[in-house]
Amino acid sequence: MTTARDIMTTGTQWIPAHETLDRAAQMMRDHKVGALPVSANGEQDRMVGIITDRDIVTKCVASGHNPSQVTAGELCDGTPRWIDAAADIEVVLEEMQSHRIRRLPVIEDKKLIGMISEADLARNLSDEQIAGWAERVYSHL
């Protein structure tokens, strides 16, 4: 059985909710990632959301806001989704498909231990699994 732990990327970086979006963009650049989990202020174990590079562009910059004056916490909306490290790959795919998300934090013992992205799926799944996932995630964007 392939699990979330088997396919995730480790070394996921947090950004505190009070940090600005320009800082988030710098962290994404430095770590070569397109998303950061957002932690409650002072509580790195509590995820309040995820921000993506696309969020920064579409919800901040394109709306005429200054990324040095908007915080990561202000951009988070909705309930953060995550998956347990022991979850079977089929459960991972279902979670991502049903919520139409492209990145999924992996949690173990209430702590973030990694992230699953499209690249992780591409490296670890069959062409048929990838095609089915992509069809469901991208079909109504």
Automatic annotation (TrEMBL):
It comes from the Bacteria. PROSITE patterns: CBS (PS51371). InterPro entries: CBS_dom, CBS_dom_sf, Diverse_CBS-Domain. Pfam families: CBS. Residues 8-68, 76-132 form the CBS domain. SUPFAM superfamilies: CBS-domain pair (SSF54631). Keywords: CBS domain. Coiled coil: none annotated. This is CBS domain-containing protein. It comes from Streptomyces halstedii.
